[in-house]
Amino acid sequence: MSDNSNNAGSRKPPVNSQTSTIKVSADWLIDVLTRVFAGHGMPKQDALQVAQCLVEADMRGIHSHGSSRINIYSERLKLGLVNPTPKIQVHQSGSGTAILDGDNGMGAVVGHYAAHTVAQQAKQAGIAAIAIHNSNHFGIAAVYAETIVQAGCFALVCSNSPPTMAPHGGSEPVFGTNPIALGVPTAADGMLVTDMATSIVARGKIIRATYEKTAIPCDWALDAEGRHTTDPEAALAGVVLPFAGAKGSAIALFVDILAGVLTGANFGTHTPDLYRNLKDRSNIGHFMLAIDITRFQKTDSFYQRLSECLQMVHDCKAIDADEPVKLPGEIEATNRAKALAFGIALPEDVIHALKQECAELGIQFKLPEH
Question: Tens digits of per-residue pLDDT, 336-345?
């Protein structure tokens, strides 16, 4: 889930015109983040869950949703805008439906609770849906889809977010980038998962461009005057654009209906800005659907048919012989494997933010030796 800001309140780290990186291991980064969140009053297991979610994004190359969020997550915890110890409640509304109140907990904590719940219900009822309100920014949607898929279910996960995107033909923010993730189990304990924002690009990538002082493609965003721009600062003062024009705009609208209107959460322009509004709780909404595939196909038959389907994609003649056709998630899986083997390259501004958080909480901070 993305947001609309270029500013983490008073906590935005200094930005150098030349951004260098430092390699760290996933384990080191998870440990530091866990200690920071625990320092803000979160139970250790919950703190670990949030840390793992952020590091998963970094490992997959989705740095806009990774540890770069440490400043704003910490700020909102410190200001009491996020509950570090939520009492999550699930209200069963039918044999396969439920409403979950996240009690304003961290999005990753609420999201994982919801994903486990809807997967369990789908195994009992065949199909299950859960509507979540009183949540917060939950990072990449893929991790929750994967939790559902691990239970042997088809997964749909979507979330709304603060308005940063104009509807097709508009120049003012109405929707968030409203991500949607889909997943399905494959043979040999594998899975196929796709996770996408309904904007041309996640707004976090524009935020990173401001840190790195790099231009953005001209079709990503409009400035405050409704003009296409390559300036990331101007883009953040304006709006991002939906992917595929009217089609992406329509999907963003339906995500807001499912995750916001249906769940009882905020929606559209009612949703407070994650960064600029440091007074109001977010009340972000998520919606999750799980389908037990064994209710429709025998497992072996499904996997065989799915394998055949996916092979058709791989076998398609590529436009560029050196760039074979890839399935959704394959690039991220390659990035993840490289990160586990060689480390995660963190920009210096993120390292600075981590060091600053540790200093304020009295936590020892030491970069790993290489």
Answer: 999 999 999 9
